[in-house]
Give the backbone structure.
Amino acid sequence: MKVFITGGGGFLGQHIVKQLIEEGHSVTSYSRSHYPLLNEIGAKTIQGSLDDKQALKLASLGHDAFFHVASKVAMWGRVSDFTRTNIEGTRNALEAAKENGIKNFIYTSTPSVVFGKDSLKGVNEDIPYPESSYSRYAASKAIAERMVLESNCETFKTVALRPHLIFGPGDQNLIPRLIESAKKNKLKIVGDGENQVDVLYVENAAEAHLKAWTALQERPTVVGGQAYFIGQGPVKLWSFINKVLACYDLKPITKKVSFRMAFTIGNIIEKIASLMGKFEWHPPMTRFVALQLSKDHYFSHERAFQHLGWRPNIDIDEALRRLK
């Protein structure tokens, strides 16, 4: 079948493209930049922006499924940038897919859409969206996810996946930042260090997307219009981070800072950054980051197991070995 994917050049997107091609599908990747690796593994690539609905519509014409993986992922930035990419871009993708008669739409969301300020321990997909969020990224993704799920109908089936803390070889975001902070001696345990989270190896995350597409075709009335938490765990966040650092021969993190202190520092940094107009940078702390580093956030995956037929094939120990 012919599959169209936005963000196929990204960390997760590349693995989804690779698995789709291995299953015999024809894949077209639509990204802002050119990724020769995708051509090398057999994908067609088109450069374009999510801002351009007509370009999206032309590029996705004639495809059987639409995987919308691209988004602006950042812990800080302008509201307008998140709105343009994550909300308006998703609206353009939905409209292009519907107008082209594409029947299946698989959306990459995030568990952060339901994270407010309190710990989440083993909750399932029935948990409501929070009234407010400390993350501009999460808030924009929540709006986009709602649009995707509300677009589900008899002729246009949609599903949203919420993969959590994706890691693996080739990651250009999570692990590199941990390593950089650790090398500069700027990484500290926030809180008591006992908080538990879900993590997810990238190949398992990609497979979940393919399973969701299959389930959308085989069980459309069950899966259509639903969101699913995708993850492995729970693991103790700081023990996991130290295992990752050990893969790169770095010392474990032992120094601690209280949640209250980290949250206050994050609040001050956000205010100063806003006043100075500094939005194109990675601040050392934000209120959302303080919450994520100190609170529990792990989820029930039973619905994904039952509805999608997905389970992680590569366990965490093996995944960590592959980092070395």
